[in-house]
Write a sequence for this structure.
């Protein structure tokens, strides 16, 4: 059995980790369990650096709280890039020997959404207000709403988790890092 501590109680994040790891190791019994891990950053990270720091902090917290084979954190954030504002997520994965950082693709944000975030609101709440939804961050997320569910928060997090697992899938190729 592979035990995986996920630094979030959000079922979307836990399901994404479970799906990614189950596809990578289909013959293994995967046990994902959530830990309410603090990010120690803003509720809505507004830079790439802050977003990454939040994911790293969640993994470190999980490592201090429990024994597992892997520790995973997914932290969503926002930044204003040279091509405009976007939301994305960092995925940090660690075992007892190495860690890996992955990142999702960017979802461009409408100016009205980014302005609300700059004013201190959180993306999930802004999207709920804009689309008259309830708790969208534990459902399809802003990604689902803005793409008509062609992509969802879980699908993007699953792919980003899969990519971040590459050093654990082929550890011999990643020696010396």
């Amino acid at each position: 059995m592979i035990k995986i501590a996920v630094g979030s109680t959000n079922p979307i994040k836990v399901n994404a980790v479970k799906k990614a790891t189950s596809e990578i190791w289909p013959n293994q019994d995967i046990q994902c369990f959530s830990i309410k891990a603090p990010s120690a950053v803003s509720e809505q990270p507004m830079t790439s650096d802050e977003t990454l720091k939040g994911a790293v902090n969640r993994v470190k917290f999980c490592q201090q709280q429990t024994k597992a084979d892997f520790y995973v954190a997914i932290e969503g954030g926002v930044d204003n890039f040279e091509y405009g504002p976007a939301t994305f997520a960092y995925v940090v994965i660690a075992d007892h020997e190495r860690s890996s950082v992955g990142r999702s693709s960017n979802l461009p944000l409408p100016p009205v959404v980014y302005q609300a975030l700059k004013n201190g609101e959180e993306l999930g709440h802004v999207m709920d207000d804009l689309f008259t939804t309830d708790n969208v961050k534990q459902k399809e997320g802003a990604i689902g709403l803005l793409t008509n569910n062609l992509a969802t928060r879980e699908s993007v997090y699953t792919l980003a988790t899969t990519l971040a697992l590459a050093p654990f899938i082929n550890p011999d190729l990643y020696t010396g890092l």
